[in-house]
């Protein structure tokens, strides 16, 4: 039901939801990410990753007993990619306990959300709509109550959630051959909520942006040039900040 336009041929390009959002913020940062330059781990990203693991565990296995929450968190850390981040972040036992306590506060709010129609958590989808163009994403939760609903949990503000969910709707359509009936983003921390009924027009707009991203990355790789730089709050975590005057200025402003 969705057709990708002809895209400039070239090397393999992997476009995740994170890569897509990065490109919308700053194309040159996306180019750096394509080249293997990723932001360093942070306490905030670690806490968010642990919270998402806990939310998925709740949905698939049921409520985590209060007395077993600490152990459940440590099991999630030990069984996944979070384990090595404890070392890379240098988290001391007292700091790790603080993170678990913060996740516990979010979990208390998360438990109030209904589970009616829950189908699956952390649903990974991958599609190759054009040779060498790999699109992939992991949807936090899928529900089905009179139609498929894709949900993305946020542990901070909603930010670019709308664009992320349009990307997921596109992926779902490519993989399943139909649009989901609803897409939704929910901030567990702030209570903010955004939802929409996917329409083909909006999904085709996302297709256009993704094809633009791929063409830009391939063109830059072939010519050895940079892409447009856009400064903003995201500059604080840019892995190539040292080479960007605009980014360093923005980072000072947003870190003040």
Key terms:
alpha/beta, 48% helix, 6 strands, 256 residues
Q: Layout of helices and strands, plus pairs?
A:
Blueprint: E1 13-16, H1 17-25, H2 27-34, H3 43-61, H4 69-79, H5 82-89, H6 93-110, E2 118-130, E3 133-144, E4 148-154, H7 161-176, E5 182-187, E6 193-196, H8 200-223, H9 245-255
Would you write up a description of this structure?
- The radius of gyration is 19 Å and the shape is globular.
- The chain has a domain at 43-110.
- Strands 1, 2, 3, 4, 5 and 6 form a 6-stranded mixed β-sheet that branches.
- The N and C termini lie far apart (48 Å).
- Helix 1 (17-25) crosses helix 7 and helix 2 crosses helix 8.
- It has helices at 17-25, 27-34, 43-61, 69-79, 82-89, 93-110, 161-176, 200-223, 245-255; strands spanning 13-16, 118-130, 133-144, 148-154, 182-187, 193-196.
- The longest helix has 24 residues, at 200-223.
- The protein contains 9 helices and 6 strands.
- It has 256 residues and is α/β, with parallel strands linked by helices.
- The mean pLDDT is 92.
Overall average residue pLDDT: 92
What is the H-and-E element order? EHHHHHHEEEHEEHH
Rounded to the nearest angstrom, the radius of gyration is 19 Å
Q: Specify the biggest β-sheet.
A: 6 strands, mixed
Class of secondary structure makeup: alpha/beta
Helix content class: 40-55%
Catalogue the unreliable spans: none
Number of helices: 9
User: Judging from the principal axes of the Cα atoms, what is the shape?
Assistant: globular
**What share of residues are in beta strands?**
15-25%
Number of strands: 6
- The span between the termini is 48 Å
């Amino acid at each position: 039901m969705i057709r990708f336009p002809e895209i400039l041929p070239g090397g393999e390009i992997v476009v995740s939801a994170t890569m897509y959002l990065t490109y919308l913020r700053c194309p040159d940062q996306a180019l750096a990410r394509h080249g293997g330059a990723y932001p360093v781990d942070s306490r905030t990203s670690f806490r968010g990753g642990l919270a998402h693991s806990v939310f998925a565990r709740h949905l698939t296995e049921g409520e985590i007993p209060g007395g077993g929450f600490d152990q459940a968190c440590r099991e999630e850390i030990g069984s996944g990619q979070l384990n090595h981040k404890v070392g890379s972040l240098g988290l001391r036992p007292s700091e790790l306990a603080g993170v678990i306590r913060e996740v516990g506060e979010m979990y208390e709010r998360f438990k109030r959300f209904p589970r009616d129609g829950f189908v699956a958590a952390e649903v990974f989808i991958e599609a190759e709509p054009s040779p060498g163009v790999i699109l992939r994403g992991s949807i936090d939760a899928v529900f089905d109550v009179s139609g498929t609903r894709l949900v993305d949990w946020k542990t901070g503000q909603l930010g670019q959630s709308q664009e992320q969910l349009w990307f997921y709707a596109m992926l779902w359509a490519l993989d399943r051959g139909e649009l989901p009936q609803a897409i939704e983003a929910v901030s567990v921390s702030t209570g903010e909520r955004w939802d929409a009924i996917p329409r083909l027009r909006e999904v085709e707009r996302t297709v256009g942006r993704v094809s633009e991203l791929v063409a830009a990355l391939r063109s830059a790789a072939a010519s050895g040039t940079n892409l447009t730089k856009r400064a903003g709050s995201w500059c604080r975590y840019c892995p190539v900040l040292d080479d960007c005057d605009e980014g360093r200025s923005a980072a000072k402003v947003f870190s003040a």
